[in-house]
Design brief:
- By secondary structure, the protein is α+β, with helices and mostly antiparallel strands.
- It folds into 3 domains: 124 residues; 108 residues; 117 residues, no CATH class.
- Helix content is 58%, strand content 8%.
- A 6-stranded mixed beta sheet has the order 1-2-3-4-6-5.
- Strand 5, helix 20 and strand 6 form a beta-alpha-beta unit.
- Helix 3 packs across helix 6, helix 7 runs antiparallel to helix 8 and helix 20 crosses helix 21.
Amino acid sequence: MEYALFTPASKFQASLKMIRKYHPFIEEIARIDMSDEVEKLLLQVNRLQGNELKDFATKLQNSQLELIFHALIQNLGTTLKEKLIFILSLRLKKRLFHYNWIILQEHYTNPYLIESFKLLTDYMKKKYPEDFNNSFASRMTFSGEDLVYQALFALKSEQSTLNDFLKRYNFLNDSELFNAIVEIFFLSCDKDGYLENAKLFMDWISASENKPIPQIIHYIEIMDVLEYIEEINYLLIELFDLPPNSSFWQNIAQEHQNKFLQWNNLNKMEKYLGSDTEKFLFWKNYYQHIDNVECYPEQGIMFMYISEHVVVDIKNDMNQSYLYRKQAFKIAHRAFFEAGGFKNQGSWPLELEKVVPIKDTILENRNSEIYKLDFKGINKLYIRDFLETVI
C-alpha cells in the first residue's frame, strides 16, 4: 500500500521538476542545473573541427542554443570556448541577447559570458537599435572594468534613483550583480541616496540572510537626526532593538548610538504631541538635550527628561507644560504611583501653589521646584532663555 501511494507522488514531483527545468521563471534561469545537457553538448562540440563544426552549428536546435551560455560558465579551455563562441556567431538572435544578459547577471565577472554578450551586443546594435539603446548593454564599455562600477558610473551620469535605474535596465532582484551594485551603492552614497531609495534599502535588508551591517552603519552615521527615515528606523528597531540592547550596537560608535536614541525620543514626542503643535515645534529645537521621553497616550501624559529637570506634559493643557527639578519630580512621581498611578487613571498630583511661571522666574527672580511653561506667543522666548541657562 505504501509503495502504491509513493510511486505516483514521485512521478508527479519528477514531472514538476522537469517542467520547471525547461520552463523556468526568469530569476531561476541562471541557477538551474543544466550540467547533464551541457556535458553532452561539450562532448559533441569537442570532437568537431572545421566544416563539421559549422555544419553542427547550423543544425543545432534553437532550444539547445541557450546551453552555450550555461557551458561558458564551466571551467573550459580556450579551444572549447572559441568553438562555442563560433557557434553563437552563426546563430545570433535577439532572444539569445536577453538570455545572455540573464546568465551574466549571476556570473558578472565571467570573461567568457562578457565576450558572448559583446558579440550579441554588436548584433543588437545593428539589427535592433531601439532595443539596444534601451538595454544596459548600451552603457557598457567592455573594457574589462568591473560591471558594478560601470553600472554605478552610468547611474551617476543619468542622475536617476538607483531603484529606477535597476528597473529600467532589467536588473534581476537578488542576482549577484544586483546585490553587488546595491551593496557598493549603500556603502558609499550620500544622504540623498537613502532618501531617494528608502524602500529599496529596506527590501534589500529584509531579504538578506546576513544583514548588511556596514551599509546599515553608514546609514546611521551619515544621516542627521532630523533626516532619519522613519520606516528605515522602525525596521532597524525591529531587527536590532534600541541601543544598546543587542550585539549589533556594539559595532556602532557611542555618538551615533546617541543620535539614534535622540531620533527615537523625538519620534515618540511627535507621535504624542503631534507634528504641527507649538509644543513639538519648540522642543524639536532641543532634541540634543533630551535624555529620554516616556509617553502614556491613553492617560494623556508625557515625561521628558532634560539635564537636571523633567518636563511633565498633560495633554489636556494644550498650551502649557510643567518643568520640575528632578528631586521634586521624584517625589511627585512616587506619590502618583503610590496612589495607583496609571492603573487607577489617576490625575497627576500638581501642587499649583508651588508652580511659578517661567516669565516670573526671569523677570522677578522667583525660584521654585516646579515651573509653568507657557507656549503661547512671546512666552516661548522666556522658556528658551531659561533653558539656555540650565542645559
